Amino acid sequence: MSLPIYVIGHKHPDTDAICSALALTAFKEAQGIHAVAGRIGHLSPETSFILDKVGIQPPLYMNTAKCSLSEIEIDEAVRVHPDDTIRFAWDVCLEHHVKTLYVVNEEDEYLGICTINDISKIQMQDVSITKDLLKDTPLANIVRALKGQFIYEGNLCRSGYVRISDKRLNERNLEGAIMVLDDHEDDMFKSIVRGCAVIVCTQNYRPSDYIIEIAKQKGATLIQTPYNIMKVIQMIYRSIPVSFIMTPKEKIISFSQSEFVEQVESEMLKTRHSSYPVLFQNHLVGSVARYHLLKSEKKKFILVDHNEVKQSIDDIETAEIVEIVDHHRIGDIETSRPISFRNMIIGSTCSIVAMMYREAHIHMSNEIAMLCAYGMISDTLNFHSPTTTQIDIDLKAYLEKEYGLCLNDMAKELFENTATIKGKEFKNLLYNDTKEYILSGHRIDISQVFTYNLDDVDYIEKDFKAFMEQENKKLHYDLLMMVFTNVEGNGSRFLCVGDLAQDVAPAVARFADQQFVSRKKQIVPSLAQVLL
């Protein structure tokens, strides 16, 4: 089972991150590469509006780069039932070339395991042990193991001992014994009279009506089998039910299919079993062994709209990054081998993806073209942000001409339906689009939301700032900044809390006066200068 390449944006994903992940995934699929779009957070109202408008499902939600058992190749769990004979279990092992069988009930619920080693022990153990198992073995199991049939099914209790006719027959205690006899009816009569529970008639011999009548009177069972005496002695112990020798599930380590490979490997080191059950709600989904873990693949990722560890999916160090497409500063992501890293001074990651389609002469579907357009509109404030480049403007014209879109109309409809802070929960505003930075050794977090009307901030400013202070008691940022930006690029309002809030207040006031709107190009660089 080969894993796909996951194309994934940053934490608290904005529209550009989601749309570029979806568009780049479609691009990879068009190149014959199995790719899946992912996301590391919930969709913003703006992004939800866009996906509903375009008619595309959101990317797969992911919270870790680790591999779970459900994502690696494991073996089929070969099943037997508790009432099956160990002969049947042995045949199943040989047929499927496995050493471990998984015991399930009629509802396919996992009960325990039975190994080929468990079965082999029955033939090697002392009779005093196996006879205790055989005495409680259902008669039907004995018949199945011997490929025989009932002549008469009696009701006598069995001792578990298996006897044959020999010179000391008259000296032996035959009470409850299983007698294996050929065509000597005299021995049959003596055995029945002396209390044997079962007579196995070998080589398909059928006793006379007289012997059958005696057996009925005494309650002895008569079984007919095609095997000879030696074969019966060999095979009868294989009639013992699997349930008698299996190891119950309580004594065996099992794994959920959602458990991570690293955790499973650690648990396996504590035991010496050859394989282990993999379960989902107590139902078997497979069997895992150490070699499955050794040959398992790492998850592969293409990062879009970010290239820093703290912004990426958790545990990214356990995965393999195969490509990065981004328009931010170069961060601290490390890779184990050379990769394709496309980093451009441009307004949005969707702009880069649109360029990749154009360069590869791959025609976008109308849905993908709309996603790229919406990502560009969102990240460039409809091309009014200072991050907007001539390349973005040229791509806008290209999309409008090639795909019949009107980006201004799309932007107007988008902003009218989504760019408002009225009625929104403070938590959603603060964590909708947030990024963490280390500037001159200080931990700083800057959140940004867009709104048509900046005057709406006046109605929530006092309460929102109190909410920020409460949140920062848990987050411990030196500076927690909230930026409310006009969606058409006409300035921003700033709220700050944290130990640095008073120190940077004069500079932040200048940010407002200068109508800063870009976190990446204006706010962060200017703040970095202040903190030098």
TrEMBL record:
The reactions it catalyses are: diphosphate + H2O = 2 phosphate + H(+)
Q: What is its EC number?
A: 3.6.1.1
Query: PROSITE patterns per the record?
Result: CBS (PS51371)
Limits of the CBS domain: 69-129, 246-304
Q: Which residues form a coiled coil?
A: none
| Keyword RNA-binding appears in the UniProt entry | no
Q: Which InterPro entries does the UniProt entry name for this protein?
A: CBS_dom (IPR000644), CBS_dom_sf (IPR046342), DDH_dom (IPR001667), DHH_sf (IPR038763), DHHA2 (IPR004097), DHHA2_dom_sf (IPR038222), DRTGG (IPR010766), Ser_kin/Pase_Hpr-like_N_sf (IPR028979)
Query: A Gene Ontology molecular-function term?
Result: inorganic diphosphate phosphatase activity
Q: Does the keyword Acetylation apply?
A: no
User: What keyword terms does UniProt attach to this protein?
Assistant: CBS domain, Hydrolase, Manganese, Metal-binding
CC cofactor = Mn(2+)
Protein name per its UniProtKB record: inorganic diphosphatase
Q: Which organism is it from?
A: Absicoccus intestinalis
